[in-house]
Every structure is written in structure tokens, then in C-alpha cells.
Amino acid sequence: MAEAHQAVAFQFTVTPDGIDLQLSREVLKHIYLSGVTSWKKRAIRFKNGVLTGVYPASPSSWLIVVIAIMSTMYARIDPSMGMIDRIKTSLPVSEFMTVQTQTVLSAILFATGLWLSFIFLLRYILKALLSYHSWIFESHGKMSFSTKIWLSLVKLLSGRRPLLYSFQASLPHLPVPSIDDTISRYLESVRPLLDDEQYKQMEIVANDFKKDPAPKLQKHLKLKSWWATNYVSDWWEEYIYLRGRDPIMVNSNFYTMDLLYVIPTHRQAARAANVVHAMLQYRRKLERGELTPLRALGIVPMCSFQYERMFNTTRIPGIETDFVQHLKDRKHLIVYHRGRFFKVWLYYGGRHLWPSELELQFQRILDDKSEPQPGETKLPALTAGNRVPWARARLKYFNEGVNRSSLEAIETAAFFLTLDNEAHGYDPENIRSLDLYAKSLLHGKCYDRWFDKSFNLIVYKNGKIGVNTEHSWADSPIIGHMWEYVTATDCFHLGYTAEGHCKGDINKSLAPPTRLQWDIPKACQEIIEGSYMIAKGIADDVDFHGCLFNEFGKGLIKKCRTSPDAFIQLALQLAQYRDKGEFCLTYESSMTRMFREGRTETVRSCTSESTAFVKAMEDDNTTNEQRLALFKKAADKHQNMYRLAMTGAGIDRHLFCLYIVSKVMGIDSPFLKQVLSEPWRLSTSQTPQQQLNLIDMQKFPKYVGAGGGFGPVADDGYGVSYIIVGENLITFHISSKFSSPETDSFRFGQNIRQAMLDIRALFSLKEKKM
């Protein structure tokens, strides 16, 4: 046991002369190194905190202002217009402070005040500039003169070396759209899904809402937008995620896959070690704020708020609502293998464990032959089942003794690692390989992932890896950012020996990982089994299909002068119509991170323009020229809606917040109730690729990510996640439910493939005629 190893470092004996205390020199060395590392970390954080706090100015600019003010005073010029003298008279009289000292101190205080005012002015100007969004609506490749001037000013005020959180204070707040705009856009979005009678009825209900109580609700919402940093995000996290009492496995959590074609080593312990070490490097940069903020066009900053809770974070279950617990400086990791929990320390002598040391620790776990304790194997199933039984079990059975200390070790860990005893990954010779890989990452065996942790790292016995992410704390681009860093660092910086082991010497003096101890009574084991059966029922019902579309990709689509996302969304509409013979309400996730603490907005992809195009594709009497014209019109409409969503002019988050206000005020709104009860039978999301550009895709075309996915949102619908990889590959992750007779994920994947080819054919025919 590690605790036992540490205990022998301090020994004492009682003698007639008193107590003889013996201290281990090695332990004292480690204590000293840990202290040095801790103070160094604090110093770096303080320095970076100052740099972020005064951005876009710099600490050196304060010195320049002070010198300038002092110089003018020696030239007998008073730039303060008497303020320095007033400060001087306000200073406490002291015999140790001469008149000259008082004058100098007064000048420094004035210069500091002037410098701080200058910082606030720069931030205000930058915030005003970042509130300009006309640039996003301009045609690709065409930039107006006003936008060029705007870009130059933003670049000028953005400074040279921003840290991760440098722009947070300069980001604008998410604006509240007008009621008229939201209602108008909503009615436009449902028009293709309703017949004339249904639409007329919806218009009446919407207009009644617009008259009353919409103005009253809007006033309260605007008041919140002035007071809060973001009028949506806190309610979105609470009511969409944390108050949900259904299982989060499949229904909320999402997954991210490894590199598609490459496995850098087949040694499970070595791959886990390199990846964990890369994650620790990323966490260090994150905690110090040293990561470069993501910027659109390389200039317009995105909000970095969601990164804060990536590590050391757990969703804690409650009876009515859960809460997110975030801690700092967690120095251990919990590893699950063959039904047993192990605690692994991540630091040694004040530094991160090297990959070779981590490999040794993980190999020790793999070689451990001990058996699970009663109730231990399926314990994580509590996090996969309904939230209320888990919350009650936590209060009753995990509130004292070894159970409490072991659960605390899990919930305070940096993250959760599963050393899986299965092999997964993409196999070109097995058409089901991606499907099984996706299901394993999404739900596993329902008891080998701790679904409440911010993320679970899963390492398979063949060296393949993946991540399962809890959704309440952040959205997929955030975990994707970390994942890109980790996979690139693993393959191109850390590397492996010829035998597949981690590089570096092995330190065998490390204390081995410690088993977590449990005392789980029979009554609790029955609750665990109940949660497992519920989770297993959900997992067994998930129908997954991974579809690699490599006939063409982003490169060819761009040659058609079309947005790749619009192209794919229209293909999904065509596939949906062919699959079910009807259109449905479609959800596409868009980000609102140009605003402070922004998360997502909905793009309603099923439009009158897209349905007209789809019908034309299925009508033999329509010419290809007509179809192409309708396609371009639908694609332009989709792009415009996406841009509106990104710039805070979406529909659904506004209506959602109005609904929350109505509930708090006790106002019943038939319109809002109907809007929020409409099922999303086609839920889609694009996984971002190459946020960091750490891998040269031209040099290393095989090192491409496979993307990730999520479970079906509606019982009779599809969930589709896609990633545009490089120039010639698009990967689709399709989910549905076996229990629905209307859906079949493989069939839908085939429909998507054919829809993509059919749309491409329109441009081919045009090229031939030209």
C-alpha cells in the first residue's frame, strides 16, 4: 500500500533521554521538491493572472505611463490638471515621508489610475468592435471595405500574445432577440412541417402569445441579460442537463474516437501512459492559462469559459437536481480494470510521472490478479441508471467509512481511466467494427465507465483509445480541442520505442497503485443491479452505424462553391425523406462562443427551401438545372440561418428562456408549451476538426480523427454526428433505436451516401454541359 510505504519514512523511538525522531532523507527531498513545484505553480498562475487581468495592455505599459508622467513633472508640466496635488493633500502625513516622496507617490498613483482607465477604455472599444457581426454574413472570399477596417482595428487592439482567458472581459454579452423576430422565424421554420389548417392555428397561438404574456416575459429576460454574464447558459446547464432525472448514459453523454487508421502501439499500458501524460501536460497549460485562445479568421476570439471545468470535475447526483463539483490541483487518477478500482498518484518528487513510470503503474494494474470485492464490479452502473436511486444510495451507503473515502477518491480524481479488456477500432474488413467501437465508447458494459466524471478515458487491450464525456459542463468542441492536443502529442512528441513501450527509464521504486476498499451491503447491491438492468435496457436498444464516406469530401464540395455543412445538411434532408417518406423537425447544433459564456444555439435545418429541393430531387419531371437552382437557394438559406444562430439571433434558446421565466412567474403559455414539446426526430451535429492544426494532413494523411457521436434524441428518430476530415473523407456516426420499427441506422447510412452522390451528380452534369 502506498500509505504504508510513506509511513515508514517517519520513524521515532522513545528512549530514557526522550524521543529519537528519524527522518528519511529521500522523503525530505520529495517534500522539498513538492513545495518548490507548488510555489512555482502559484507564481506562474499569479503572473499569468496579472497578464490576463490587464490585457490588452501589459504590465510594462504601466512603467511607461509612470515614466511619462514623472518626466512631465520634472519639466514642470502638470498633465493631471491639479489631480496629483489633490492626491498629495489626501495622503496621510508622516514624518518618514518627505514632500518630494509624497509628490512622487502621488504621481505614481495618478499614473496607475490613468493606466487602469486606459485598459478599461481599450476593453470597451474592443467589446464594441467584437459586437460587429456583419463580416460573417459576407460572401466567402469577398470582404467589404468596412470589414477590412474593422479587422485591422480588432487585430490592433488584440495584442500580440494573448493567453487563454485574455479576451474574456472584452467579449460582448449574448443579445436578447426581439419577440417579433423570434416568432417570425419560428413560424417560418415550422411552415414546411404543417398543413394549411395546422399552420393557421399555430399562427393564432403565436400571435396571442406575442400580445400577452410575451412582453412581460421579455422584460424580465432583458433584465437578466443586463445582470448576468449570459442570459442562457446557466439555465441551459441547470434545466437541460442537471435537473434531468433520466439516465445520462446514452441520453446525454457523448463519445470521441481515436485516430481512424493509426494505432501507434498495441501495448495497452504504454498507450494509456503516453495519453495520460499528454493530458497532464494539457492540464498544466490549461491551469496556467497558457493555451492560445481559439479565434475565427485567426482574429475574432471565442469564449474560453468552458475549458475551466475539464479536469478535476464530477457531476454529483441529487434528489431534485445534480450539481457540478470542480476542484483544483487533483494529484491522482482512478483506474478501473476487471471490476476493480485503483488509485494512481500522478506526481513524484513535485513533477508529473513520466510516461515510462505511468506505463509501469498501469502494467501493475493489468498484472494484478486480485478479485473484485462484493458489489464492486458493477458499482459504476449507479452512474448509468436513473439519477434519484443513485442520489439516495449515495446518501445512505456512501456517506461514511471506507465507502465514503473511496467514493471521494473517485469524485476528486483528475479524471477516470478504464483499462478495457476488449479490442475495438476501425477494421476495413469488418463492416460492423465502427458500430461496435461507437457503442463501446457510448455505454460500454454499462458498469465499466464512471459516467458522472467530466470525461472517461477508455484504453482498449489492442491500444485503441476513446473518450466518453459528461455533457453538462461543456460541449464537444471543448473536449475535441484537448483530444487533438493529446493525439498529436502522443504520436509526434512522446512516441514509443521499437518494442512499443514508452520512452524513458523505469523507476521501480514507485509505490504501486492502491486498491480502493468497499463495504457494499446486500441492499445497496440490489440498487446497483437495478440501475444496471435499466442501463442495459437502454444500451441494448441503441442501434449504431458508422459510415465512412470517401467518394469525395470538403475539397470537391468547395469547388462547387457551396458550404460543406450546408451540402451535408441538405443531403441529410434528402436521406430523411427517402427513409421515412416525410420531413421532420431537424436540430443542428451551432456555437455561440463569440459571446461571453456562450454555448450552443439550434439551427432548424428543415426549411421551405430545403423541402422544395428534396421534392424536386424526387420528381422526375424536374430538370437538373431547376434542382441545382433550388439546391443553391436552400444552401444559401441554411448558411444564413447558421450565421444568425452564431450571432445570437437564433430561435430556440430565446424561447427556452422565455419558457423558464413563464414557469418562475407561474404563467401558463400554450404556445411555449407546444414549442418545447416538439420532438427533434433528426438531431445533427458537426464535430470540429483541426482546431489546433498540430498535424500536417498533407504529410501525414493517415493521422485523421474519426470524430464522435451521441445517442438518439427521439424514440423514433435519428442522431447524426459527422466530421469533415481533410479534403476527401466525411465520417457519419448514426444512432437510432432498435425498438422503433421506423428506424434503421444502417439503412439511413446508405440513404445518406446515396443522397451525397445524387447531389454531387447535379454539379457533374452542369460541368459536362459547360
Notable traits:
six-stranded mixed sheet; disordered N terminus; eight-stranded mixed sheet; 770 residues; single chain; membrane; globular; 22 strands; EC 2.3.1.21; alpha+beta
Present the secondary structure layout:
Elements (H helix, E strand, L loop, with lengths): L1 H6 L2 E6 L2 E6 L1 H29 L5 H16 L8 H8 L8 H32 L14 H13 L21 H12 L5 H16 L2 H14 L5 H10 L11 E4 L10 H21 L6 E2 L3 E2 L11 E4 L6 E4 L5 E6 L2 E6 L1 E2 L2 E2 L2 H13 L19 H11 L3 H11 L4 E4 L13 H10 L12 E5 L5 E5 L6 H19 L19 E2 L6 H19 L1 E8 L4 H6 L4 H17 L5 E6 L8 E5 L3 H10 L6 H23 L5 H14 L4 H8 L4 E5 L21 E3 L7 E8 L3 E9 L7 H25 L1
Parallel strand pairs: 8-12, 12-13, 17-19, 19-21
Antiparallel strand pairs: 1-2, 3-14, 3-20, 4-5, 6-7, 8-9, 9-15, 10-11, 13-14, 16-22, 17-18, 21-22
Descriptive overview:
This protein is of the alpha+beta class. It has 24 helices and 22 strands. Strands 15-9-8-12-13-14-3-20 form an eight-stranded mixed beta sheet, sandwiched between helices. Strands 16-22-21-19-17-18 form a six-stranded mixed beta sheet. The protein is globular, with a radius of gyration of 29 Å. Mean pLDDT is about 90; it is low at about 1-10.
Short structural description:
This protein is of the alpha+beta class and 770 residues long. A hairpin with a 2-residue loop joins strand 1 (10-15) and strand 2 (18-23).
